[in-house]
Predict the structure.
Amino acid sequence: MTKLQLDYLAREAARGRIDRRTFLGRAGALGLSATAASALLGSVVQAQGAKKGGTIRVGLQGGSTSATLDPALATNSTDQQVMRLWGEQLVELTPDGGLEGKLAEEWSGNDDASSWTFKIRSGVEFSNGKTVTAEDVLATIERHAGDGSKSGALGLLKGIKSMKAEGDKFTVELDGPNADLPYAMSVIYLQIQPNGGKDDPNAAIGTGPYVLKDHDMGVSFSYDRNPNYWDSDVGNASQIELLVVNDDSARVAALQSNQVDMVNRVPPKVVSLVKRLPGVEIHSEPSKGHYIFIMHCNTAPFDNNDLRMALKYSINRQEMVDKILFGNGSIGNDTPINESYPLFEGFEQREYDPEKAASYYKKSGHSGSILLRTSENSFSGAPDAAQLFQASAKQAGIELEIKREPNDGYWSDVWNVQPFCTSYWGGRPTQDAMLSTAYLSTADWNDTRFFNVDFDKELIAARAEKDDAKRRQMYHDLSGMIRDTGGLICPMFNNFIDATSSRVAGWAPSKGFELMNFYAPIKMWVV
Amino acid sequence: MNDVFKLVLKRLGLGVLTLLVISVLIFFAVELLPGDIAQAVLGQSATPENLAALREQLGLNVPAPVRYFHWLTGAIQGDFGTSLITGDRVGSTIGPRLLNTLFLASYAAVIAVPAAILLGIFVALLRNTIFDRVANVLTLTAISSPEFFLGYILILYLAVKTGWFPAIASIGRNADFSTMLYNSFLPALTMVLVVMAHMMRMTRAAIINLLASPYIEMARLKGVPAWRVIVHHALPNAWAPIINVVALNLAYLITGVVLVEVVFVYPGVGQLLVDAVAKRDFPIVQACCLIFAATFILLNLAADVGAILTNPRLRHPK
């Protein structure tokens, strides 16, 4: 009887005939806890399918007054969320790690994967009414890959020999094979703009499902649904409001007091408290992002692999996941690759082993303390993680000295400059992109100074390999080299932690970044 | 009256000199910050080529003193330059933010100043009673708590638990006046609580100080009622210190609100300044700091003039 009553009440609430508060009250009277009642309501709402209309409001951390709308410079998550709504790339990641066409209808490579052609979807219009052409795509990629580019995509676009636009085809010629080139086109910086944004990079004119109507940098952004969007199924809310709420407590309070419908970056420390709030749902989604300790393999004392192994065995990875991420993440294995990547193959888990660490340490012949630099902005909780590392290493007889550096200037004066420090990576769309960005000998961001000729050769060879099984094995070998000889200590992969209110529904797993790879405001709907 | 005029001119001249010194200090303080502008703008994911391109574009390869004098010559002609990061005019970036800050400061001042002075008079009248003690303890508690903490408490009780007021005070551009008042009530209330105690206690102390004077005793002996003794006889002589404290607190309402703005997501100058410092956006930092410095100079001047005008002895020095 109770079950029937509950289902009835939940359906009524989902249709809006009784309000949420009333529903939770009556469900409570029937003996259901507030959390369980919220979950029940959520499942009923989900089952009824997407609804069009209404306004979705999003509270975001990471916005700044001095940000710009130029996609090339959109390095932080708020800037990226802002352009996800008005813009679109050629292709996009799918939840299973593959690719789907956005502005490109289809794409194909030649036999040795050194030339790629994208067919541009016909009849798509920019929000200024102009029709998208292959020339616009060409101009966009030129702007990001060209001389003097400040684009975050520059590194991924290296190796382009020439590009051309013909009819509705856009073709890229590479100076070597790269089976992953289509993935590079999915990177969020590459929003297609009219004439590539060469005339006005900050115009925020694109082909996205929403149109930027009004904005106040670092404060708020409001959008209307794009009536001319090529796929009329996409986009549920009529309006979207993005509000920058940098303060963590204020963001959660705004969600609780119905001022926003979803927020990003719930601090791991408060996840268990926020979970208990009625009408709020936490989404802790695995990511490619990892929190790391990095050693320069070419600088004493870290030029000695025995010392590097000693440090790798003297860190307690599970403890880091429990105490730094509060369980919102997964354990690392000293490679930058995890199961979120396509073609991933795991290793046996490297455990905390003070005895092994001590024997490697003895073999290295090092004595005295080792200086580890850290700062709060190198990753959330980095100074605490450094202290945990210090304590676990002490068990193995290794002495770490911690130096706390200021947040200001950490990325210019410490990271990629000092031989041993804390840092993080947000991950890249493919294994090749991640390894080429940070572990290739010639990479600008080779922040572990990992110089290995065999590694470089195999990484380049893997780009040309079309057999997935062989490629999987090659990437496994590459990760193995980093794991056993590199300067990376990777204790944990962090989750993205977002929260949504029960006023919206439609959350689904995704690959990429937070808030369903920034698609949550587009794909979710107002209940 | 001539003396007051001369004093104002002299103080304004000194004020301009102070502003110049402050601008030099700020410029070199920004220069001393670790890291450089290009790196701060592009963040961790900046490649060396990115950095070189941006440095060239921002003119950072020119020596610092030369950059300062370029800025100074512009500023003297009323041109504060463009933001290094966004390329917008400094004036158009700061303008709307300054209006927001002034709105919030006036909102808080309109509530706090009369309330603090009235409460000060009441507690002076009822000194050493339970009312006096309670008022003192409450206002001192409010001033002793950090602003962000007070803000969180107000959010918890007045926004999250009761839903009476919005937790974030995002004032829309097209909001009408009453909506603006309603949306920004919590930040205004936080600031009222922060500045009340200081002004109230100064009013109380200044009045009580005078109550021991012979002329007050005379008034009492004449049989004047207690409230009249305070309002008509003591208060006129107590204005000078009260005006000083009010002026200082008004300045604080404009310059000291960064944390309140952050907690309530209120788009004011403080938030802009924090963002600008993080990105080393020197023209914005410079302009914000000069506005803050000018606020202090002008309000101090106003306090001195006020003190002179309310005190006949200062107005006619022998």
